[in-house]
Amino acid sequence: MTSTLPRMRLAIALSATTMLTPPALAQTLPTGGQVVSGQATISQSGNAMTINQSSDRMIANWQSFSIGAGSSVTFNQPGASSVALNRVVGQDPSRILGSLSANGQVFLINPNGIAIGKTGSVQTGGFVASTLGISNADFLAGRYNFTGSGGAITNEGSISGKVVALISPSVSNSGTITGSTALAAGTDVLLDFNGDGLLSVEVKASTVKTLVENKGLIRADGGLAILTAKGASDAMKGVVNNTGVVQAASIGSKNGRILLLGDAKHGEVNAGGTLRARSVETSAAKVNLAADLKVDTLGGHWLIDPVNITIDANYAGVLQTALASGDVTVTTSGSGTDEGNVTVNSAVTWGSHILTLRADNNIVINAPLTSTGTTSSDGLVLQYAQTTATGGYTINAPVNLAAGSLFQTQKGTDAAITYAVITDVDALQNININRSGNYVLGANIDASATAGWNGGAGFTPIGGIGDISKYFSGIFDGLGHRISNLTINRPSSDNIGLFG
Q: Which N-terminal stretch is annotated as signal sequence (predicted)?
């Protein structure tokens, strides 16, 4: 019948056990469908298939689910929150080269693999593609728990929806995705979202190697873009690669977020391309920043969170670019024999915004850090010994700060200590006004002018001379700077210098 009547328009009312048997058209449309839960009707005219869903949730099993170039499949659903689960039980992978559209949400499950080609277009209220399995009971209850070890998912075409999720052990995007997006690689994944585009995803440690890569464009404005992969060991680690563009700009009061996440024990994030959002996080046991990486937080914040981190020339260049648009936090999470240290081996210079170095153990600064911003919203924060009792910070190179900017330290859960930044000899002398304060030198100070102070007596030592009630009781740190040409001419007093 299917070979002799290719142009016949067929409409079939479907119940929970009805077979969908539209005419096959050179395998360019889904075939052998059977509804196993819910109600729908299907009609086909030429290379166009229409599925009218009348129940809020519907499950259909298919022998194949592919759409050829120039062909289309349209779901008409009761509303934006309606969901259709399409499960492939045959042996063929799904190839979407034509158009898939829906006013609600469409799930496509095929353990053999799913590929959206360059001519493929998916336009739905929400789209979830997975090569892992999901039980009917979980789906009908709204529990989107995917398990298994199916084939790969690739997108070279265009996908749009309030929520888009691609879930398999290997996920690759070189096309365009628009909407809150999750690219999740694993063998046990829990997905949660609603019709407003709110999205969360949890990937448990996988039993196989997992990979997520984005070489295309992901646009999740006002929402979340999350690329995550997890593995159970170094041999089966999860890797996240980005060389494309991920954008989650703000829409009104809704700020976008970008998360590139691997697990803290074995995961690896390789960040390149462009990341643009108010909030950006790149976290894994190992985080590699490509020299061409551009991070624009639009006045927001970027968190970098590996196990240990050494800021080399490549890292420094990326940090400088990112600090031009927002705050940056570099944090470590110690694991096993990795203590969680931050080491600065290359100079970093920035203007506005705050750089925070947060270490589970030690912070070691071996190259200059320079902040030229002049407000308390600019500067440097050092948070050390966050999970150890012995961690500290070591300054082996100058930390250059402007007067009025922020310098703050914090050991573990102790209260943070905020310092006043001193950059000239007058401000240095004025420490005597508040001898219990906390101070750092933000620059080298030439104190030649003190030779003419106080009738030739010069600089008045901090804390005065001989009066114990006036001794300095605060904190003073030079941050790698010098005070030169300081005159203190007090021949009748013993044991005095910068401090009395």
A: 1-26
Apex 43 CA angle, 96 and 161, nearest 5: 40
Whether the Cβ atoms of residue 346 and residue 367 lie closer than 8 Å to each other? yes
Over range 379-408, report the average pLDDT.
96
| Confidence tier at 260 by pLDDT (50, 70, 90) | very high
Q: Which structure tokens are listed for 280?
A: 């950006």
What's the pLDDT score for residue 500? Answer: 75
Neighbouring CB atoms inside 10 A of 106's CB total 25
What's the mean per-residue pLDDT of the chain?
Answer: 90
Question: What is the per-residue pLDDT for 27?
Answer: 52
Q: Stretch 231-249: mean pLDDT, rounded?
A: 87
Q: What domains appear along the chain, each with residue ranges and CATH number?
A: 1-124 (2.160.20.10), 425-484 (no CATH)
pLDDT digits (tens, 9 = 90+) for 383-394: 999 988 889 999
Quick one: CA torsion of 67, 65, 176, 161, rounded to 10 degrees? 110
pLDDT at position 17: 40
